[in-house]
Amino acid sequence: MINIGIAIALLILCSSYKSCPIVSKLTGIKVLTIILTVLTSINILVLLSGILPMYYFTESDGYYPIVSELISGILVAITIYCGGIITLGIIACIKGYKCFGNRELSVAAYNEKLRAGAARAQQIYRTQSNVNVQQSFTTENTAWQCKSCGKFNESDNKFCIYCGNANNK
After folding, report:
1. What is the DSSP letter of 49?
2. CA-to-CA separations, 152 to 14, 85, 123, 130, 163, in angstroms, rounded
3. Residues near 154 by beta carbon (within 8 Å), at least 6 away in sequence
4. Distant-in-sequence, close-in-space partners of 54: CB < 8 Å, separation ≥ 6
5. Is the pTM of this model over 0.85?
6. Under a CB-based contact definition with an 8 Å cutoff, are residues 143 and 153 in contact?
7. Which of 55, 93, 104, 115: CA 20 to 30 A from 133?
8. Which helix (H) or strand (E) holds 144?
């Protein structure tokens, strides 16, 4: 059941990554694809080493034909179910490998990360510089506040250093 959930999550993540490539989605696709590859491989090994040999073993048992056919039917149902899970896992893994192997989407995701990081750094710088300027001017008793823009200026300035309006005391 966990394979089905991971496969569905991977397919949804791949479809949303194509419309909006972001590094966090790319990382999620990589992780889910690797986990699903391992789980699907384990399912294949279980199917080949456990269920199929049991099915052939019950076919050769001739002592209790009704029980043998019942067990064979159950094993066929389990084999079909496991085959469906394996198929879904393989399809989702292929989509995942194609997504994070797509060079254009990866470049777009990393460019978006760089753009967002630069915008955030600029925002932090502006906020910090405005706070520092306002604090340094407001702590002095001789500072004057511009009536046009509301920013504080040093007492020596005859004009506002932000907007250029004259100091009208």
Report:
1. I
2. 52, 68, 21, 11, 11
3. 137, 140, 142, 143
4. 71, 75
5. no
6. yes
7. 115
8. strand 144-145
